[in-house]
Amino acid sequence: MKHRGRGVACGWYGIARTAAMDRAAVWVELDDGGTVKIATGVTEIGEGILTGLCQIAAQEMGVRPEDIVLGDNDTARVPEAAHAGATRMTYMIGNAVAVGCREAFGKFREAMSSYWEVAPGSIHAFAGEVWVEGSSIKRMSMADAVQVLKKERGIVIVGSGLFTSQHTPLDPDTGEATPWQSYVFGAQIAEVEVDDDTGEVQVLGVWAAHDVGRVVNPQQVEGQIEGGVVMGLGHALMEDYIQVDGQTTTPGFAKYILPTSLDVPQVTSVLIEEPDPKTPLGVKGIGEPSITPTAPAIINAIYDAVGVRITRLPATPERVMEALRNKRLVAAEQSERA
Amino acid sequence: MLTFDQYLTPATLADALRALHEIPGARVVAGATDLLPWARDGRAGDVHLSALVDVSRLAELGGVSLAHGRIRMGAATTIAAFQHDPLLREQAPVLARSAVWFADDQLREQATVGGNLINASPAGDSQPALLATNTNVTLARLENGSIVERTLPLSEFIVGPGKTRREPREIMTQLELDALPGHGAAFEKVGHRRSMVISTVCLAALVKLDRAGLRIEDARIAIGAVGPVPERLDDVEAFLTGHMPTSASLREAAEMAVRRVRSRSRQAYRREVLVNFVERALVSALAHGGLAVKRSPKETEHV
Amino acid sequence: MSELKRHSVAATEGRYPMTQITATVNGREVSRSVPNHYRLIDFVREELKLTGNKEGCGAGECGTCSMFVDGKLVKSCLTPVQKIQGAEVETIDDLDRDHGMTVLQRAFHKCGSSQCGYCIPGMVMAATSTLRRNPVASLDEIKEGLGGNICRCTGYQKIVDAVELARDVLNGSKPESALGEEDATGFIGHSTRRLDAPAKVTGAIKYAADMWMPNMLHMQVLRSPHPYARIVRIDTTAARAIPGVECIITSADVPGVDNFGVAIDDQPIMARDVVRYVGEGVVAVAAETPDIARAAVRSIEIEYEVLPALFSAHEAMQPGAVQLHDFAANNICKHTRIRKGDVEAGLKDADLVVEETYQTAAIEHAYLEPEAGLAYLEADGCVTVQSPSQNITHHRHMLARILGRPINKVRMIMSTVGGGFGGKEDMLYQGMLALAAIKTRRPVRYVFTREESFVASAKRHPIEIRYTMGLKRDGRITATRMIMVADGGAYAMSTPYVMNKTAILGPGPYAIPNVWVDAIGVYTNNTPCGAMRAFGAFQSEFATEAHLDLCAQRLGMDPVALRMVNLMRDGATTHTRQQLDRVLATECLSAVVSAAGWDAGVPFRQGKGNKARIDLGGPGTRAPCTLGASLSPPQKKVPVGSPDAVMNK
Questions:
Q1: Predicted confidence band at C278 (pLDDT cuts at 50, 70, 90)?
Q2: Inter-chain residue contact C80 with B194, CB threshold 8 Å
Q3: For the complex shown, is ipTM > 0.95?
Q4: Is A325 within 8 Å of B272 (Cβ atoms)?
Q5: Is B64 exposed, middle or buried (0-12, 13-18, 19+ CB in 10 A)?
Q6: pLDDT confidence band for B93 (50 / 70 / 90)
Q7: Could you tell me the pLDDT band of residue B298, with boundaries at 50, 70 and 90?
Q8: C9 pLDDT more than 80
Q9: Whole-model pTM?
């Protein structure tokens, strides 16, 4: 017999390095052909930050994402951006890219306003086109603008960006601190089906709402949420690195069980988009926050389905059956006493 | 890592048998899906063999045909054929039901039925369905230069975890099993996920009703992963045969299976699941055969 | 089985007989002589240098190596190379036959289906196989077709979306324009297609294990079989005598300060005098081929004096327990405390006090890319290490000190990362690689097996959480006490920082006047634990959210309502007494309740005689998985042309 149930869980997470100063630096150059070079310490580990940084730079510099060349991931060639983790990539490096691009674009505006003899504020650029607001003739491609500034004015447009997040260490006795500047909140609901013949749990649906700040790329934010939910599902139901006297009994993927395409729920992501007021771009992060509510939402849904509380992860079929067995024993004892 | 002095791909069964005869320590390989993972850290580690004799393309180990109510199938038939071969799908649908649970799509293209039986893993997923269809296996060996064959029932072939009655220089050539297109079939399995998963309990059930569609004329239930070898639940089969199945009798039949669990680990779990599986598979095989029997309510319901 | 384990001269020296293989690979006939133990994956990657398909596990359990052999998709790590003699092989590298991306690859690009990209070549192959077999495959059939391929990043949803899109475009039910990019009126906020996707869906992008340099050596590492032992003697005489062995290193070869760590300097780059966990590196060999290096590792003899070891955090903290590191009294690596208000008073004030203990498991990151790296010397004497390191900045600092060189003579390049999740923040092998490159003045590459990755890399901390919560009848939490004990394993790695995060975030996004948290990370002889996605908060927040459900049950309250009562609002003060400004916690809960259609009054109403549930099985849920999607309906026919013709258009 199959039983369905639902569970809810909330979560929160601090963005970037914990209780320690966090920093990221970027160099920017507006380059020939209306392209832009961005140099920064670390980027992609799979989350999509490379694309996100190119989107940010494109927006700030008035070019297209494919016009960006990202120099990255090399301690001898690019400025420090610390490490790739801690849900800090969009927040730390995204903001640093914005700061650096704004400096470079400010210089570009100045130079073009002098060339066109207009106020800097009237210069606009988007997707590789530069124009003066309200003018039909003062308009050219970014490629030509770069050429004009280099050839006629001897100007190379460069900028640099630094973003710092002010975090304080924990008081050793009380823990008092400002460990992060920005937090991400979230809540998830899971629907499960429990098979009382086997103790198997199938997660059929997960709804996930997260306060992600300003969204750079909705598809990639969803990708992080879907991936986090499924990793959380694995932790909730399957994954267990077991050691016996220090020797692992789960030394590979045959014994260490990960979810497959047949084990995963449909995931519905809800992005609560309110820009973070404390940073230049208003962006936050979602890599880690997405995983925290999933396992408890599933465990709570198992209770809703069959009335047993699993307190030890993972909730394998054996553990669910054992809990059901114990529940029956308790019920039998109670009815005997009654 | 698996290393060896020679890898042989003989053209005929005779050549393959000769190689086994002449090279001490030579080992037969078919799909290689169990052999290569075995020779890795955490299991056997680095292993060096004198020779591997690849039998997967031998004509003598191929073919699927039907004669006199029995299916003949080469030992090198892949598990994928259980799903895709039209004759097997029609004449032995229980094989396809078990195949969809076997590893994954890609391993099923490589893994062979003979290999799965010879490896004799207690959790081998093809075994219960083949036991339920009264499979005989034929083994060939070389004697004084000529090929000699012997045939024995699968139930006698596997004798323990990783242990069979195959002699080191024998090659399994063919299987023969009952064609049972008219039986209701069911296959049950549980592991820790739904693909690429080792069975904790698995079971195949076949049921045939009499002409009136009321009494069980033939019942076959085979179980795997709960003891050192897969086995038929002959007592349960006898209990059911000739009787009209009712919710109560199916439950009673299922509870008879409990003592069959002989695994050293997760016993309580396996007992409970096995009983549930017998009951559930019988209900589902009967439904497949055209008779709806309701399952008895469980104590866990409405708790 | 061990009677089969015998070593010929070939195995002793790592030189195996060669075999001549002739096959058609991606439409071209190739004929090569390769070691006879090669598998198809070795032939394609190491011999033909077609590195699009990956080796994720070597045991047929992940699908990164899936290739077609005579039209059938197989796992090439389980295919002895002799099986492709005369066959046609297709790999990801030229699946498009130079026609740009295939429709399926374009759909992966469009749908954002690749993240780290390491599983993607195998996924594309599995999806291609599924659609070649049935161009109108159902959703369940597609999922079963991908059932042999593991992805750790995406959650599979966008991969399945892409296969459905490709199916529809290929069978003509959707126009090809469905694969195009939508116009953008702005770039921030737009679902710009991933710029790295074309290289990932075609297998063109290079990960560390795909790199190859002229004159390159190959590293293998001998690892500890014991959880705790003194190294009495290391004998490398036999290994040094093997032709092709270029360098053998131990901790004795480290020129600088061999003591480092993410948070605490407690770790050598290879075991020094003692081993503290099973899998700790002890000796590294660099040789002309991986086979020779592996043979050399097998021939090294180490004498150990096995010491009594600690496998439980609780035992390790007992007085009189063995001390695993001199500086850590009672083996406590880190104790983080949060104290706010008066918890005893808060519990006294409560109408209900609920206690429970929760336990989480040790977790493997299971990125599909096993650790790999390539080190070499540059003309100016700088030693460069390319590896999928998540922290090149700190690795450079640490490595310069270990190697005793100026920091600008150490260069770390982060190669394309095939999944990290925190597991690639630790410097597990880069030190050995750099040292070997300096000693041999040749490039040295090291690629972990999956099994090495499991035993050698840090895990998520298993944490026991003892919970006490006091609540008023209306649901308000008056006090929370969490006592958490984490097994940190043999070295600190990120344990101190993980303890901080588990403690700070543990009590959850709730306004609680009285809070007491202890998070204690303990040294044992288990595999070290370190950084992993959500870094301790996964464990502590799991306990909190499971516990709140139990409290809701005891109070007879709806679990959403209980949370609503307690969630932080604008201006809330956190457990570390930080004043927040904007707090969107209740907005998130309201949004998810409305998206899912939460039926207030659940949980566990089923069977209790209340009104029927109205919330289950609606939009946003999938059908339960029953295997055998391809069995039920008759196989449908291709609308036009053969499946292959459609796929190659």
A1: very high
A2: no
A3: yes
A4: yes
A5: middle
A6: very high
A7: confident
A8: no
A9: 0.97
Residue that is written with structure tokens 């927006």 in the block: A59
Burial per residue of B246-264, b for 16 or more beta-carbon CB atoms within 10 angstroms, e otherwise: eeebbbebbebbeebbebe
A24: left (phi over 0), alpha (psi -120 to 50) or beta: beta
pLDDT at C319 over 70: yes
Cis peptide before C603 (omega within 30 of 0): yes
Is the backbone peptide bond immediately before A314 cis, with ω within 30 degrees of 0?
yes
Cα distances from B265 to residues A100, A244, A313, B73, in angstroms, run 61, 15, 19, 35
Question: Which residues share a beta bridge with C517?
Answer: C338, C482
- DSSP at C225: S
| Residue A200 annotated among the catalytic residues of the structure | no
Residues near B130 by beta carbon (within 8 Å), at least 6 away in sequence: B95, B113, B117, B154, B175, B177
- State how far the Cα of A152 lies from the Cα of A164, in Å rounded to an integer: 37
In angstroms, the CA A62 to CA B151 distance is 79
User: Among A196, A252, A254, whose Cβ lies nearest the Cβ of B298?
Assistant: A196
Cβ neighbours of residue B183 closer than 8 Å, sequence gap 6 or more: B94, B206, B207, B208, B218, B220, B285, B289
B58 three-state secondary structure: coil
3-state secondary structure string across C535-586: CCHHHHHHHHHHHHHHHHHHHCCCHHHHHHHHECCCCCECCCCCECCCCCHH
Residues of C in contact with B83 (CB under 8 A): 630-631
Whole-angstrom Cα distance, residue C201 to residue C104?
9
Rounded percentage of chain C residues whose pLDDT exceeds 90: 90
A321 close to B (CB below 8 A): yes
HSE, CB side, 13 Å, CA atoms: give it for residue B78.
22
Over residues C360-418, the pLDDT tens digits come to 999 999 999 999 999 999 999 999 999 999 999 999 999 999 999 999 999 999 999 99
Tens digit of each residue's pLDDT (9 = 90 or more) over A165-188: 999 999 999 999 999 999 999 999
Listing DSSP states for B93-110 in one string gives HHHHHHHTTSS-HHHHHH
Can you state the angle between helices C157-170 and A218-237, rounded to 10 degrees? 120
Across C173-187, average pLDDT:
93
The first and second tokens of residue A248, run together, are 């692992």
Q: Helical H runs in A67-212?
A: 95-116, 142-153
Residue B190: strand pairing partners? B201
How many Å is the maximal CA-CA distance in chain B? 69
What residues in C contact A56, CB-CB < 8 Å? 187-188
